[in-house]
Amino acid sequence: MVQRISHEFETSIFAPTSKLPQKSKIALDKYWLALFDQQVIGTIAAIKLNQQDAVLKMMFVRKKFRGTEQGTSKKLLRVLIDWCQSENLSNIYLGTMSQFKAAHKFYLKNGFQKVEKEDLPEDFINNPIDDVFFIKQLDSVNDA
């Protein structure tokens, strides 16, 4: 599925494995799949950095299932937020590429704010091809 999504973009969405930070080679703390007719249509994952921060990773949704009509991205994000809140985490960070304009709009619409790379936590797990960064502060259990 991720390979199929990768063909939608001119610039590769994959960093060379040799350039990935060591922590990224460690298993994700949580990984969820969205299914339709027993087919994977979306993914989202989290890596817990410390007692208050997590990093959103691996958010991919097949083109046919994107947008508000389907709601797949929103549902995946809700699952991740619920998990972060159950873990008493305060912040969700993410890095993405500048070419993902629709994703930027989605994150902003869902309460994320842009943040500069230098303002990321020291232990942030960065994909070297990411150049746009966001944070979502989780203030309450009703946060969406």
Write the layout of secondary structure elements.
Elements: H1 2-6, E1 30-36, E2 39-48, E3 53-61, H2 72-86, E4 91-96, H3 101-109, E5 113-115, E6 132-137
Question: Concise description?
Answer:
The chain has 144 residues and is of the alpha+beta class. The protein has three helices and six strands, in the order αβββαβαββ. It is globular, with a radius of gyration of 15 Å.
Mean pLDDT, to the nearest integer, reads: 84
Low-confidence region ranges: 17-25
Shape: globular
Number of domains: 1
What's the CATH H-level homologous superfamily? Gcn5-related N-acetyltransferase (GNAT)
Q: What level of helicity do the residues show? A: 10-25%
Tell me the number of strands: 6
Overall SS class: alpha+beta
Profile the largest sheet. 6 strands, mixed
CATH arch. level architecture: 3-Layer(aba) Sandwich
Task: Report the β-strand fraction as a percent range.
Answer: 25-35%
CATH fold-level topology = Aminopeptidase
Number of helices: 3
Rg value = 15 Å
State the distance separating the first and last CA atoms: 26 Å
For the biggest β-sheet, the strand order reads: 1-2-3-4-6-5
